[in-house]
């Protein structure tokens, strides 16, 4: 059984990961969050919740102790204001992993930063710049097995299992279902072969969703 800790578990991607992981028989999941009440009760009752601040190194390290793997869905919510939480948070997570001899981490990034990434709109540069800082920090962590999943628009759609992943380039569509994204994140943690194939790389991902479906839902990059 994998003992997994999820950071950023109250955002859309993080909540989807917690929801799916809570029903996995081969995963024991811990959510590290500032506000536990943001996790729905039916999910909270099935997992371990640790209240803490990702910017506090000791709290992060203590939470990582005894875990096998990390998923980070750190983001800025729906805010597009400049931030350093993502990069500073990942720095603390990496330190905590090293202190506790944890090797595997899968993080959510943005498709704008793939080698053939889309043009970044000026109003999104603040948040995208912090994702870029996060990526630079991860690339220096050669002692860890890290994977960066880089979704485009994230749409609050159900699980389709009709998604495409690509290594170091954008996937075909400009949208991914939140549930599909969560499914791949957990697959990567559970499947050693997939982790090895994706290790130290960026992974594009997209879902085949009808245009009318995803345009009518709230979408974003966190």
From TrEMBL:
Q: Which SUPFAM superfamilies match?
A: NAD(P)-binding Rossmann-fold domains
Question: What is the protein named?
Answer: NAD(P)-binding domain-containing protein
PANTHER family recorded for this chain? Answer: FLAVIN REDUCTASE (NADPH)
Organism superkingdom:
Eukaryota
Native species: Ciona intestinalis
Which GO terms fall under molecular function for this chain's record? biliverdin reductase [NAD(P)H] activity; riboflavin reductase (NADPH) activity
Could you tell me which InterPro entries the record lists for this protein? Answer: NAD(P)-bd_dom, NAD(P)-bd_dom_sf, Polyketide_Oxido-like
Which stretch is the leader sequence?
none
Q: Which residues form the NAD(P)-binding domain?
A: 8-191
